[in-house]
Structures are given as C-alpha cells and as structure tokens.
Give the backbone structure.
Amino acid sequence: MTLNSSFDIIILGAGISGMSAAMHCIKQGKRPLLIEATANFGGRARSFEDRVSGDIIDNGQHVMMGCYASFFELIEEIGMMHKIQKQKYLTIPFHFTNGEKDLLIAKGFANIHGPIGMALGMLRLKFLNIRDKRSMLLFALRLKLGICKPGSMTAKEFLLSEEQSDRLIDLIWTPVILATMNGNPEEVSAKIFVTVLRLAFFGSGDASSLYIPQCGLSELFEPFESWMNEHGGKMLRSIGVQSIDIENNQVIGVTLQDGRRVESSNVVSAIPPHALQKIIPNALHQHSYFSMLEQIRYSPIVSLYLWFDTSFPEIDLSAVMNAKTQWIFKKSTTMKSAKSLLALTISAGDDMVGYSTEEIANLCANEVRQCFPEMQDAQLIHWKVIKEKSATVLIDPDTEIQRPNPKSPVDGLIIAGDWTNTGLPATLEGAALSGKIAASLI
Ligand SMILES: Cc1cc2nc3c(=O)[nH]c(=O)nc-3n(C[C@H](O)[C@H](O)[C@H](O)COP(=O)(O)OP(=O)(O)OC[C@H]3O[C@@H](n4cnc5c(N)ncnc54)[C@H](O)[C@@H]3O)c2cc1C
C-alpha cells in the first residue's frame, strides 16, 4: 500500500538533525514528513521518568555552549529558550579528590569576555604554574592568529607539537577534549579540536558560556510536533523506515516497517550510521561513499544519577579532577527522603562500561564524598547508571577525512546527522547544523 503523500520531502529520524532539517525546510516554504522509529523526539537527547524517585532524568546530562547557534535557532523557534539557563561568563568550579578546589571565570575587566576573558580566567587558576600559564597563553595566541597546523594529527600529537606540558594536557586539555569530543586526546582529530577551541573556548562574546537545560530534554523538544503541524509539516511516530527506495540512481521514497510505502523524490536521512547501513539497498554498500558506514567507531558515555541524604553545596556544576567522574551537575529532586540529586558524567568511558552499575555508582559516590567535605558522611539512598555504549561516533583523524558530505551519490538522497561532515564534533550543534545544511540542499 502506498500512503498518499502531498509532502515535498521525507525526513528520517526526529533527533536534533531531523528536527532541524524539518524546521529549515518549513522556513523555505516546503512541506516535510518526519518519520521517527520511536515514540519520542530528541533521539539521543531524551528524558524519562525514574520509577523509584519519580524524577524526570535525561539519558545523560546535556550541556550546550554559547556558540551553539544552529541548535538555539531550533529551540528559539519552538519557544523553549526560557527553559535553558545561561552562564554570563564561562564559570567552572574545579574540585580535586584531595579536597582542593579552584575556579575558572572567563571574565575580563569591564565585563570583557571572549578570548581576553578566557585568557585572564586561565591566568587566575591556582593549580597551574607560571610556565604552564605562559605556554597555554602562547598556544591560545597561535590559535587566534591561525598559525597552528593540526594537519592529520591526533589532539595529543598536536598538543605536544605546540609544547603543551603533560600536566597541561592532563589538567586542562584532556577534560576539554573529553567534554566536547567524547574521546581521548590520543584518539581524536586535532583538526576538530582546533575548531572547538577557536569557536567555543576562544570564540567571541559568550561563545564559551555553558547553557544548561532546566527541564528534561524531552520536555525541551515537546512543542516541536505542534509547531510542525501548524506550519504544514507532519510527523509519523513509532514506525521505523525499513528501506530507502531507489530506482535508476534516483530516490523514489521509503518503505515503512509495516510495509506501507511513501513516495518522494527527496529524502533526508537523519539517522545514525549503523541505522542507515541497514536501510540502503545492498548494492550501495560497496560504493565508496557508503562503505565508510561499517568502519565507524563509537565512543560510550556513562551517566549517573545519585540521590543523597545530604544537601549538596550551592554550586550548579563542578569539573572533577584526578577521578573517574568528570562532571557533576546539581539537579532538583522530588524524592522525599533525598536532600540532593546529582548528575555525573563520564565521557569516553570505555574502561567503565565493563563495571557493574552498582560498582560505578559506589565508586563515583565515593569521589563525590572525597571532593566535597560537606558530603563526607552522605549516604547514597538511590542511584541510576546509564551506559550509552554508542553515545557518539569517535572522530579520529581517519574518520574525520571519511565523514560523508550531505549530498550522497544517489539523486535526491541527502545525509544528515552529528556524524556527517560538519567540521564540528558530534554534538547537538553539529546535529542541528547538519539538518540546516541538508535543508538548504533540497
Ligand atoms: C549520554 C549523552 C550525553 C551527551 N551529551 C552531550 C552534551 O552535553 N552536549 C552536546 O552537544 N551533545 C551531547 N551528546 C551528543 C548529542 O546527543 C548528539 O550529538 C545528538 O543528539 C545527535 O543527534 P542526531 O539527530 O544526529 O542523531 P540521533 O539523536 O541519534 O537521532 C536519530 C533518530 O533517528 C531515529 N531512527 C533511527 N533509525 C530509524 C529508522 N530506520 N527510521 C526512522 N527513524 C529512525 C532514532 O530513533 C533517533 O530518534 C550526548 C549524547 C549522549 C548519548
């Protein structure tokens, strides 16, 4: 059976890239049909109810930065910017497991922020010595002047070539790389790392400020479906696409999992590489454009939610140093017996994936106690550990070269998603930008 389609374009996947593609198609006066395999929006950025506490938690804490222009375009359009709390300047408290602490405030004189604020913020850090500060500032200057040549190096090779000490790499650059690229410095592409530093950390205005959602991620995207309907688009949920149909190298539509067909000469795939690989015709698997799909490696993120019987100090977040835990975010809880709820993040957590969820919870709860004297005797009353084994693609130098451009060799088939060739890491912003680019090519 063929569904009667009066739509100009079919978009597969209602993650950020699919929603962004649909929104930009609508803005260009086109009518998209967005097809999503699950019942939800947001893809890898979603939330659910924790049954024990009744709290809404995300599948992993998501943080945005001031430079997320394409992502914020989407959130602004659906009227949800008020649900995202913005830092005025990048402000990061650092906590060490020996109880020491420090604070980065990327703020200059007379409210100057941007690169000067960042440089001054770094100069004020107590845990760096004068030599480290000097080589970090020289590096920042070389980045700003565009002298650095990352080539096809890994981030670690590049940092060493820029005379960054092991201490600087461990204490500053590794946390930045883990948080923005979900990979280790020894693995990730230096080219993308340099882009992150230029756009975000040493970008202008509030580019480096952190933006943190104040509601569950699913609530953040909730108005999207009605926005689509009001603007002439439509969404099919809870039904996956089984195949992308192609005739004479021209896309002709898609077949749904229940056998129904939807015709269109324009299809945007906004689904992850492994999902795309399953729904393209076998003949295309050998094509150089698509053959990279099976070579892609993924990197895990382990996220924890810890409910304690003790109040957490009055800070929104903390970067945890010399520990398995990388970030702690303070959340609110409705659980009566709990005085605090913390969301913890471990990016590129390959070595943690093999541990049991209980072991991870206990290990990280201990790190919280070590970092914060106020939490020394805190009892863990409930925990939830989420292992996203394929959280993002791992963008190493080889993958960076192979990331596909949006225009596929099949006429009418455009490829989007955080993993495609956006020049950005696999993030919410990369996903939103890829959707925007896809829409511009139809
Ligand atoms: C735990 C975790 C923490 C993260 N933290 C951050 C962060 O702090 N900041 C940040 O910027 N990024 C973060 N990310 C990355 C961010 O979530 C992703 O980059 C982004 O959500 C990817 O969006 P996407 O649209 O490209 O893909 P997806 O979100 O994967 O969307 C693809 C959609 O396609 C659907 N689909 C798949 N197959 C089919 C099919 N055959 N038919 C129809 N639909 C299909 C899926 O159900 C899904 O909804 C994090 C990711 C994880 C997992």
Remarks:
- The domain at 105-208 is CATH 1.10.3110 (protoporphyrinogen ix oxidase, domain 3).
- Residues 12-18, 35-38, 43-45, 59-60, 62-63, 240-241, 270-272, 275, 279, 301, 303, 388, 391-392, 417-418, 426-429, 431 surround flavin-adenine dinucleotide (CB under 6 Å).
